[in-house]
């Protein structure tokens, strides 16, 4: 896995998934992670590869090697400074999942809107035909205008959809507001800390980062002042089938793709795949 800068972000979920698979079964692939950063302070991003707090996964079960590169520094900084900090977020009652306007079961509500709209439309058409169109056709022996009848049909079907959609929206809005008031009442009645419980323990289950007592930084081989030699790394990789995954700048993805192309002779056992994203 080659990454450049923030391109390491997609690898967090991939490596955590591999860690889960390694703990569930005895077979796990060998993973070589080659991240490239500009500054040594960015090495703290490697700690996000660790499983989240509260999980019981054994990190040693995953065959993971990390060789990091710091391109714009010649050596490790001598002055001691925190590479990262832990930020605690107080939960809010308004931090609710965002759902569609019709609620979480939007497809069910949409089906109900279609069915109810059809029933209302048929009922209105029946009333219109029985009490307005039929007397004209029957008593005067005149054929009612088809164009006017089509206009009536369009107006009635629009009214049917508008009525049912408005009722569904107001129903969901009322239900969501009721759930929000219940959450606020529960949040207000829950104390921030219990007697004898420290504030650190209260925040322990609300930490959004990785486990604080473990780190990948100390066990990572870091190369300063140089960029990774993609060709050398791939040539030294042993295996009959090697997956090469790249996430980072366009130039990095192009360089690795050129090495894995059929013309180089290395593509016999290399399977290339790249990840690109934009903000």
Supply the key terms:
alpha/beta, 42% helix, Rossmann fold, 279 residues, 12% strand
Walk me through the structure.
The protein has helices at 9-24, 106-139, 146-189, 199-204, 230-236, 250-259, and strands spanning 2-4, 31-37, 64-70, 221-224, 242-247, 270-275. The protein has 279 residues and is α/β, with parallel strands linked by helices. It has two domains: 2-86 and 207-275, Rossmann fold (3-Layer(aba) Sandwich), CATH 3.40.50; 106-199, no CATH class. The chain has a six-stranded parallel β-sheet, sandwiched between helices. Residues 190-213 have low confidence and may be disordered.
Would you kindly provide a brief summary of this structure?
With 279 residues, the protein is of the alpha/beta class. The protein has two domains: 2-86 and 207-275, Rossmann fold (3-Layer(aba) Sandwich); 106-199, no CATH class.
Task: Give the SSE layout.
Blueprint (H helix, E strand, L loop, with lengths): L1 E3 L4 H16 L6 E7 L26 E7 L35 H34 L6 H44 L9 H6 L16 E4 L5 H7 L5 E6 L2 H10 L10 E6 L4
Parallel strand pairs: 1-2, 1-5, 2-3, 3-4, 5-6
Helix pairs in contact: 2-3
The largest sheet has its strands arranged as 4-3-2-1-5-6
How much helicity do the residues have? 40-55%
Name the CATH superfamily classification of the largest domain.
Nucleotide-binding domain of ferredoxin-NADP reductase (FNR) module
Which regions contain 5 or more consecutive residues with pLDDT less than 50? 190-213
CATH level 1 name of the largest domain: Alpha Beta
Number of domains: 2
Structural class: alpha/beta
**Largest β-sheet summary:** 6 strands, parallel
**Termini Cα gap:** 21 Å
Q: Give the overall average pLDDT.
A: 75
Order of helices and strands: EHEEHHHEHEHE
Q: Count the E strands.
A: 6
Return Rg in Å: 31 Å
Per CATH, the architecture of the largest domain is: 3-Layer(aba) Sandwich
Shape: elongated
CATH topology of the largest domain: Rossmann fold
């Amino acid at each position: 896995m080659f990454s450049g800068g923030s391109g390491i972000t997609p690898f967090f979920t991939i490596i955590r998934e591999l860690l889960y698979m390694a703990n569930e079964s005895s077979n796990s692939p060998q993973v070589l992670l080659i991240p490239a950063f500009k500054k040594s302070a960015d090495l703290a991003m490697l700690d996000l590869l660790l499983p989240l707090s509260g999980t019981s996964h054994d990190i040693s079960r995953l065959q993971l090697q990390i060789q990091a590169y710091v391109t714009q520094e010649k050596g490790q900084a001598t002055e001691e400074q925190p590479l990262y900090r832990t930020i605690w977020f107080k939960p809010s009652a308004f931090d609710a999942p965002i759902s569609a306007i019709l609620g979480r079961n939007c497809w069910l509500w949409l089906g109900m809107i279609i069915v109810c709209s059809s029933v209302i439309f048929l009922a209105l058409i029946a009333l219109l035909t029985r009490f307005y169109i039929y007397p004209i056709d029957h008593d005067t022996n005149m054929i009612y205008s088809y164009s006017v009848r089509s206009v009536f049909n369009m107006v009635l079907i629009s009214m049917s959809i508008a009525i049912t959609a408005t009722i569904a929206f107001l129903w969901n809005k009322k239900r969501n507001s009721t759930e929000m008031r219940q959450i606020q009442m529960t949040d207000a009645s829950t104390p921030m800390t219990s007697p004898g419980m420290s504030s650190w323990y209260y925040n322990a289950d609300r930490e959004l980062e990785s486990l604080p007592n473990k780190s990948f930084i100390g066990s990572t081989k870091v190369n300063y002042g140089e960029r990774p030699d993609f060709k050398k790394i791939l040539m030294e990789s042993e295996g009959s089938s090697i997956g090469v995954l790249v996430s980072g700048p366009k130039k990095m993805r192009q360089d690795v793709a050129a090495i894995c192309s059929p013309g180089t002779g290395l593509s016999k056992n290399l399977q290339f795949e790249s990840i690109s994203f934009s903000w």
